[in-house]
Amino acid sequence: MQNKSYPSLSLRLALGLLLGLGSLTAGLAQDGIYYAVKLLPDKVTYQVSLSSTIGLSGISQTTNSGQVTLVVPTGSFQVSTIQSVNGIWTNNTTIRAPSQSPGYDYFIFGMSPTAPLIPYSATQETILFTFVNNGTCAGPVEVWTKSDPFKPDPPRQPINVGNDLTALGFRNGTTLYNAWNGNYNVGGANCSTATLPTVAILSPTASSTAMGPTVPISGTATASAAVSVSENGNLLCSTTATTAGTWTCMVSLPDGVHTLQAISRNTAGSSSPATTSFTVVSPVNCKPICVPITISIVRRRR
């Protein structure tokens, strides 16, 4: 009889540990970059930069593509005098007051495909380019976010608004991925001295139960500010606060626990987000009730 060999207990434990660590690593967020826009001291020059989660060197710094979309209150912003620092950047597209977000203009900056070696550092930000606003102060300039109501939605909205960056150092195996993970330094590019708006969610209250599937969301905000409500970055509804500072909008939600975020905006900028978590329960569909019927037979006398 041929003897069978089995891995030792210690070897099996080591293999199990490696598999466990591999699963844990796969569950972590991908390495990538964050974008920021900053207003310089002259109050007309804006600086666009990135911050990386890891440092890259050599050929891994080769950057294949890059795009940054800036969002500005509509009306007066005029981009000029773009000075590229890392990569060659141009204002490829400008969309003013789109129907999905009529209070804002969108400036899409793209990097020319020259495969520059951009210095990615985990400890220092990297300046990409600067530009000058030739118009009057429009208020806060921010980098586009996934919760923005103006986003690609072909064929209704085919414009490639949004952010991306691909580089050889950000890949899964041989596949490059969009390394943009989000933004930082939010609120750092506001030429206005006006007070930022506020927002609060009053209903549903935290930890409450709301009857679904259509749930009214209401609260307070700075008078006439634009209010948007989202969940996990997905816009659910948008409205405008009344002159009395109240707002309401209706959202459709499945049963379960939900955490919603509200943000208000005006010419001074964006508010700090307000959140609430609650449970949605939809009523059970009504079912017919069987009612017994008694039939009596009456015999007539002759």
Q: How far from one another are the termini?
A: 103 Å
Q: Based on DSSP secondary structure assignment, what is the total number of beta strands? A: 21
Order of helices and strands: HEEEEEEEEEEEEEEEEEEEEE
At the fold tier of CATH, the topology name of the largest domain is Immunoglobulin-like
Question: In CATH, what is the class of the largest domain?
Answer: Mainly Beta
When the domains are counted, the total is 2
Assess the beta-strand content as a share of residues. 35-45%
Overall, the morphology is: elongated
> What CATH architecture label of the largest domain applies?
Sandwich
Q: Based on the structure, what is the oligomeric state of the protein chains?
A: single chain
Mean pLDDT score? 86
The profile of the biggest β sheet is: 6 strands, mixed
Contiguous uncertain segments of 5+ residues? 1-28
Helix proportion range? under 10%
InterPro entries: Ig-like_fold
Pfam family, one: Big_7
Task: Note down, in words, how this protein is organized.
InterPro entries: Ig-like_fold. This protein has 302 residues and is mainly beta. The chain has 2 domains: 30-183, Immunoglobulin-like, CATH 2.60.40; 199-281, Immunoglobulin-like. 6% of the residues lie in helices and 42% in strands. The chain has 1 helix and 21 strands. The strands form 5 sheets. Strands 14, 16, 17, 19, 20 and 21 form a 6-stranded mixed sheet that branches. A hairpin with a 2-residue loop joins strand 19 (256-266) and strand 20. The longest helix is centred in the N-terminal third of the chain and has 19 residues, at 9-27. The termini are far apart. 29% of the residues are buried.
